[in-house]
Amino acid sequence: MTVNPIHRISNAIADFKSKVYGKEQFSEDIVRYFFIACLNSIFMFSIYQLIYWLDLMSTYTAEIAWFFSFIIGTIEAHYVHRRFTFKSTAPYGESLYWVIFVYSIILVLSTLMISSLINTFDIQYQMAWVINNVIFGLFFFAGLRFVAFPLEDASEV
Predict the structure, then answer these.
(1) N or C end: fewer C-beta atoms under 10 angstroms in the chain?
(2) Is residue 55 one of the residues assigned to a domain?
(3) Can you give the pLDDT at residue 35?
(4) CB 136 within 8 A of CB 110
């Protein structure tokens, strides 16, 4: 777990190049990821809406709703991506550590993005949520595949 993230990413990329991970395997992974990510998004959007409607603070309502739905969604997403998308055999704690690492970086960037979309570009909060998820979806896949669930940890169970 205490491996340097840059070192972990370079090892994962080298493993992808040296092992058989062709278009077919990539296609299977991306299709599974897309399907499960859509289900995760429905779950996260429901939480986002609930927190938004609760209006925990009168300012930054959308940002707070995004932040907390993101945290709750991360926990749920880790489980389903670990079990179904990448079928990882890595120790649970290790994969959770790296998922939190990947998601934390994306959390900061996506929170800034959703805030900009709503406050700077005056985009409706639900549309901003959709745009934000579409933009960061591929970053999630890359982070999960290369950092949290690298190929050497995947198995076809």
Answers:
(1) C
(2) yes
(3) 95
(4) yes
pLDDT value of position 26? 83
Domain, as residue range, for 127:
23-153
pLDDT digits (tens, 9 = 90+) for 121-157: 999 999 999 999 899 988 899 889 888 888 754 444 3
Query: What is the count of structural domains for the chain?
Result: 1
Q: Is residue 2 part of a domain?
A: no
* DSSP per-residue string spanning the chain: --S-HHHHHHHHHHHHHHS---HHHHHHHHHHHHHHHHHHHHHHHHHHHHHHHHTSSSSSHHHHHHHHHHHHHHHHHHHHIIIIIS-B-S-HHHHHHHHHHHHHHHHHHHHHHHHIIIIIS---HHHHHHHHHHHHHHHHHHHIIIIIS-GGGB---
For the chain, which ranges sit under pLDDT 70?
A: 1-2, 19-20, 152-157
d(CA 157, CA 151): 14
